[in-house]
Automatic annotation (TrEMBL):
InterPro entries linked: WH-like_DNA-bd_sf, WH_DNA-bd_sf
Organism domain of life: Bacteria
Protein's recorded name: Winged helix-turn-helix transcriptional regulator
Length: 151
């Protein structure tokens, strides 16, 4: 890969632009992959929350974790509703959401898409480089008084 500028020029580039451009490119790529199986990214996150918690998750628990993700905000209800309307999730008597057979099958398909997407996005990037990048971005967020959290 060729870089757009020399190292001397790159070190003077605006991080705001490059972090935004990376975010736009990666999120667009991920969302395109998920749309191929009819999922939005917030619906994927919802399904993933259920997959990670075999006892199920309530709407409130899902929202508490996901409310800060990207541009979704706190209004995840329509996305959660869509997974119920499509028959991917169903509530138990305590309101905890669980996979239906169709939901589990679609989740497995989407998980494979996500695995392949991550592989493509990380191509040519070592774990050490990725770790350094995330730590640098976290430091910049901290330095500017910003908040970021990802589960």
């Amino acid at each position: 890969m060729e870089f757009s500028h020399s190292d001397e020029e790159l070190v003077k580039q605006p991080i705001g632009y490059w972090s935004w451009a990376a975010s736009q490119a990666v999120v667009t790529y991920i969302r395109a992959g998920l749309s191929g199986v009819g999922l939005t990214q917030p619906q994927w996150w919802t399904l993933h929350q259920v997959a990670e918690h075999p006892a199920g998750r309530t709407r409130e628990q899902i929202t508490a974790v996901l409310k800060g993700y990207l541009d979704v905000g706190a209004d995840l209800e329509p996305e959660i509703d869509a997974t119920l309307e499509r028959g991917l999730l169903e509530p138990d008597e305590d309101g905890r959401l669980h996979f239906t057979e169709a939901g589990e099958a679609l989740y497995a398909q989407a998980a494979e898409i996500q695995r392949a997407s991550r592989e493509t996005v990380h191509e040519g990037i070592t774990d050490a480089e990725f770790l350094t990048t995330v730590k640098v971005l976290q430091r910049m967020i901290h330095n500017t008084g910003g908040e970021a959290w990802h589960h």
